[in-house]
Amino acid sequence: MANPVVETALCQCVFGAAPCPLPVSSQQTVKAMELKVATIMDNKPPTFGMCSCPNNPAVISATAAKAGVFTPAPCSPAIPAPWVVGVPSILVCGKPLLNNTTKLMCMWGGMISVSMTPAQTIQTP
Description:
Layout: E1 10-13, E2 20-21, E3 31-32, E4 35-36, E5 50-51, H1 57-65, E6 73-74, E7 87-92, E8 95-97, E9 103-105, E10 111-116
Antiparallel strand pairs: 1-2, 1-10, 3-4, 5-6, 7-8, 9-10
């Protein structure tokens, strides 16, 4: 069974070097365990450290600068859409709840997932 995601949940990109905490900015009123509950619109992770996605223009540029030796570059997530799918049956301020099985796609090709959420004790249907 999936768990809801709250602020400070850790997210990880398959091409990122480090996890990052998820900021919640889509709503300010609904809380679980005294932390703001995330929705599918909380799709602005700050960075995953270094990016190793071969489709990322920064990685392509860094690799070209090193004469073709593959070189990771600083991560700047490019997120064009909300998380998929969330929990459409539970709305938080009119937006579907984000749960820990939901995925987010970076424009460069990385898939982002929730690796840890403090709300492990609250179950969603």
